[in-house]
Amino acid sequence: MSHAPLKPGAAFAFRKTMTVAEQAMFTGISGNLGGLYVDAVRAKKAGASNMVAFELAVGGLATTCLSQLGGPTRRIGSIALDFAAPVIVGDSVEARAEIVSVAGDEATCRVTCTLSPSGATVIDGTATLVPFARG
C-alpha cells in the first residue's frame, strides 16, 4: 500500500465551539457523570463559569488535524496530551497539529489546543502517525 509523503512543517488547524448538545452526547458516550461536566451549578460552585468541557472531547479536536495530516492510509499510533487549563462549555477552541519529524512512514507531530480568540493554551502534546496497515 502506498502512502502519501509526510513532510516536516506540514500543519492543519481546526476550530470549534464546545456546545451543550455535544457535552450531553459525550456524557452518554463516556458514561462520565462528574459534577464539573454535567451540572452547571456544581461547576460554578467550583469556580467555573459553566460546565467544564470533557478534556478528551477537546483533545479529540486534535484528531481531526492528525487525520488530515496523515491522510486515508495512516492512523494515530500514540498520543500524549497535557491539559494545561480547563475549557468551559461555550468556549471556542482551535486545535492544531504539525509534523515535526519523519522517520520512514511514521511522523511525530506537535499537538496544541488554544482558546479562541485569546490564544491561551489549554492542551499541549505529541502524537505519532503510523501506517494503518504495516508491511
TrEMBL record:
Q: Which residues form the MaoC-like domain?
A: 9-108
Q: Per its UniProt record, what Pfam families does this chain match?
A: MaoC_dehydratas
GO molecular function annotation = (3R)-hydroxyacyl-[acyl-carrier-protein] dehydratase activity
InterPro entries in UniProt: HotDog_dom_sf, MaoC-like_dom, UPF0336/Enoyl-CoA_hydratase
Q: What is this protein called?
A: Acyl dehydratase
- Give the record's GO biological process terms: fatty acid biosynthetic process
- Can you name the source organism? Bradyrhizobium frederickii
Lineage top rank: taxon? Bacteria
User: Where does the record place a coiled coil?
Assistant: none
